[in-house]
Structures are given as C-alpha cells and as structure tokens.
Amino acid sequence: MNENVLNVDIEKQVAVFTLNRPQVMNCVNFELLYALQDAVESIRFDPDVRVVILTGAGEKAFCAGADLKERMTLTPAEVKKFIFTIRTLFSSIASLGKPVIAAVNGIALGGGTELMLVADIRIAALNATMGLTEARLAIIPGAGGTQRLPRLIGAGKAKELIFTGRRVDAKEALDIHLVNKICEPQLLMDEAKAMAAMICECGPIAVEQAKYAINAGLETDLNTGLSIESNAYWITIPTEDRLEGLAAFREKRKPVYRGK
Fold it and tell me: Residues 6 or more apart from 170 whose CB is under 8 A from it?
C-alpha cells in the first residue's frame, strides 16, 4: 500500500487528515478508503487528539468522489464492497467522539460532498464547488448523501440538487447552509485551525457529549432528545474538568482541561 495516499499530521491536539491524490483530484479508491479508515481508528480513543480536520492536497480539489477509473475495473460484487466500505467508514467518521472540520479546498463532488457532510463543521474556500452529481451517471449517492444532505439543508433543496446533479459554488453553499463559513483559498487552513483551537479550549468530555446529544437528538422527537441531553449532561457532572472550569472562573484564569 502506498502510504502517501493520506497524510496525517497531529499538532496542538488537532489531527489533520489530507487526502493525497492530487493528480486525480483526490478521488477515492480502495487504497485511500483503507488508509483513512486506519487513520480514524488510530485517533478514535486518543485523548491527545481533540479535533480532526479533513482536507485535500493541492489547490484544485477537496475530493472529486470515487475513482471512476478504478470503478470501471471492478466487478458488481466489488462495487458493492466499495459502497459498503465507504458508507461504513463515513458513518464511523460521523460518530467519532471528536469534532470533525471539513476544510473544503476546491472541488467536492459525489463522494467528496458526502465526506464533507459527515463533518460537524464545514469551511469552504471561495473556489470550492460542491454537489451530489451521481444521478448524471445513472446512480445515486451511496455514502449517505440522500440521508445527510436533507437533514442539513432541508428535503426540498436536497431533492433539487440530487435530482438534477447540479453543482453549487461556495457562496450558494453558504446561503443554503451547506457550509458554515467561506473564505479566500489561502486562508482556508488558518480558518480551520483557528476553529479547531477554539474547540480545544473547551472541555473535551463536554464537547464529546454535546456532539452526541445533538446527533442523537436530531433522530428523535423533542422529549426524547431532551432526555438524551440530560443523560449527556449527567456525564459531565462528576468530571475533574467541570471542577477545573469552576475553579478557573473563580480564580480569573484560563482553565486547563485534561479530559478527565
């Protein structure tokens, strides 16, 4: 396996995963899927990693979706295996107990948009282009796009984009709440790292439980969601971090959270 299909850099409690196939617009093949899978699992329970940033190598693409050249060589059974693998991987990223930020640095089509959708926060460069374009190839999104896009931007707009395969630019993506923020391309990683740094200032257990409460609560009714929130809150009460936060407030200093 070519170890360079994915670059992993961990610094200041932030893991940056960079899809590294710029010669093919960072499109996803089996090799990249397995590399990303290994990287995610390597930090899942690492207390020294509090935030993950996903981005693509080069200036043109975040991820242009599945590697269609590889796809043309696959049998129908292998295509099923690919779809199962990418769907399972993306769901595992979505359920990661750490915030995930997508730094969308260019083209993000098909599986690239689906990868962006599993992030908690999306920041796009002004040159970014996004879209679930699968219907134009007579298929449908297979890594969660039909489920995650309508939950994010509403069913009507999601149907429009999926049925037409239309692409949207960064400004439209911001208008329809597909992304949280847009910026000049040269500022993208600075913006993503600044967001990650702000998250790292907060209690990691609290952030993990807040993510869980939001994600789980969105899938149910309000009363059940409030119960989920209560249970998540109870987990924070006996932590050392909660006491540290109170002490820091009393002593007028910055808290030092240790995830305990």
Answer: 104, 124, 125, 126, 127, 128, 129, 130, 179, 182
Q: What is the average pLDDT across 94-122?
A: 97
Q: Are 117 and 93 in contact (CB under 8 A)?
A: no
**What is the structure's pLDDT at 3?**
59
Strand 100-104 to strand 51-56: parallel, antiparallel, or no bridges (unpaired)?
Answer: parallel
Domain 204-251, CATH number (from 3.40.50.720, 3.90.226.10, 3.50.4.10, 1.10.12.10): 1.10.12.10
Q: Which regions of the chain carry the CATH code 1.10.12.10?
A: 204-251
**Residues labelled as active-site residues:** 66, 111, 114, 134
What CATH code is assigned to 3-200? 3.90.226.10
Query: pTM of the predicted model, to two decimals?
Result: 0.93
Cβ distance 86 to 115 under 8 Å?
no
Give the model confidence (pLDDT) of 194-211 as tens digits. 999 999 999 999 999 999
pLDDT at 2 over 80: no
